[in-house]
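Sample entry (206 residues):
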Amino acid sequence: MPSPSKALREGSAVKRAAILTAARELFLSDGFDRTSVDAVSARAGVSKRTVYDYFGDKQTLLQAVVADISDSLVGMVRRTIAGSLSGITDPGQLEDAFVGFSMRIVTDMLGSADYTTLIKLLGGERHLAEAPFADAPEDALGEQLAALTQAGLLATPDPRLAADHLIALTFGVVLNRQGAMPVAGDDRVRPLVVEGVRAFLRAYSA
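Predicted structure, serialized as tokens:
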């Protein structure tokens, strides 16, 4: 194993991706403690030394796997915000826009393999404390609510707090009612989201 002070290699993007994929699959199926670097290197088709050169140790590899999943989820949230909540010019569009945004988060993000894997890794591994993306999704939503407020479409004195409220009232309620794996075709989900959006707009309409 390389010394902690040794600089990690940037390396080949293809090899790095292969190692992350192999580690993700093994951590999920066998658990962190039972997964060896030998097993990761064999599945990735690289040498054990390459795994150590790229990631340093197994703990850092686990963190890299979680960071990779988190980056993917944050990117999904940002794309959903841009696709659902930008280009609004009339207050009458807000309800449909927020419902559409929340439903896409429920089905595309919370129902994704990435989200399911992240929850299992965070919940099942004492080696991890929390998702590394921290508040990035909430911050991104807060920025969009601030833009809608600046456009005169919402009244949010604290857009970041308003983002927390929107999340709690919509897919937060879905998670509380339905559990961590909502079903895309579950006809109980949309009514919860619609009522949550309406409550949010009663509080924050301009």
